[in-house]
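Q: Two folds, back to back.
A: First:
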Amino acid sequence: GCVPDDCYVEVRRSDLVDARSEERTIEKTQRALERARGGVLFVDEIYNLLPSNGRQASQDHGPAALKVLATALPTGDPLVVLAGYALDLQRIVSSDIGFKGQFLLRMELPDPTPFELARMVATKLGQKGFVLGEGLTARYIADAVASMGDDWRLERNGRVADDLVHSIRMEMRKKATAGNDMGTLSPTMSVRVPIVTPEEVTITVEDFQNAFRNGI
């Protein structure tokens, strides 16, 4: 294969940047590279490392993280994959940070369709132990995503799936907490033990509707 090990590390801005200082950002990014040594470092939403007017200049250390990533490219260890919008990637690759001529391959993928996003949601939820209940199908989720319009979906790209999974998990956590407020008391201990029932991992249509309405 392209790399000797099956090590795969996925990171975003929050995994690389420390708002407290540029030095801490450099160290944090180097640690991420070290964790991926021998495998692949996948940097998602790379555009968030570009300077932004929405952040204080004293805390915007994304460029420092980019420079550290650039210095690691010539070694090929780890294999670095950058993901983001085409125009932002072009800005980064053509900048003087150190990315020029360092990438072997560039791939431009089409934006995911509502149904593809729905399948992502179902897969991610399944990986976390959740089950879609009766009536909550990939088509149902896709229709909900499509109802928001193309502009809304394309602006968020693949983040729709992650945001929706996060919102559903928060909804299920809130539901479980509300149902277990009393808990059970151990005969020998005064510590409340949460009640866990199989229904708590089954996501109903109502759960999805609440999560979609309140969290998206």
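A: Second:
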Amino acid sequence: QERQKGITAQYQKSRNKEPIYMNTKARLSGEPCRCPPRCYCDDCASGRLEEGELAAYELEHRFHASTNVQMGMDRPDDELALLLDQHVHVSSEQKEAFLSEWAKSRAAHTTPLCSCASCGVRDPYLAYHRVAVAQLPSVFEFTLEQHERRARLQQPVHFAFAGKQGEPISFRPVNISKVLSCFESADGRVYHLHPELVEGEADNPTVQLCSFCHEQACEKSEPV
């Protein structure tokens, strides 16, 4: 604290001694810079530049040390590798335990990698629930307005396609309704589901839902 008070007093003295524009006048006249201590500008001597860079580094280091996040400080790769080698030690037994846990839980070849057919999330740590599409509540189905929008998008739109070198641009009709990710069942109902994630037979398709979407589906299910 005493050191900080001294620096603050010295800085204030330098600021009170001459106005800010005097530093600009000094640079124009070729005189040495009048930057306050531990600060520097592009016209300072090399020693002042190094002093300012060191001061900025020390300030950042004190911040990370005081908040107990030293390892979160950005460092060069070689410096970070040296710090890890000097201060972080993981025994061979711990390494084997970590690798075994990783191989058995997240990276196991037999671990199913499911995807939610509703929101699309894919996470091996989440619980998924298989549900028949026919049992999904009406909130998963297209509304009348959404059906009308899909019908409008099914009208072909001509897009310009660049030809090969020397060939003219060609125009071809494109069905842009495919931008809507939806699944149409055999009975004509359209659902807000990713079609590539719908499984099973055409007359009885099923989907995997994540815990959140499954919970929402159960809450909004209509009583039979």
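Q: And?
A: The radius of gyration is 33 Å.
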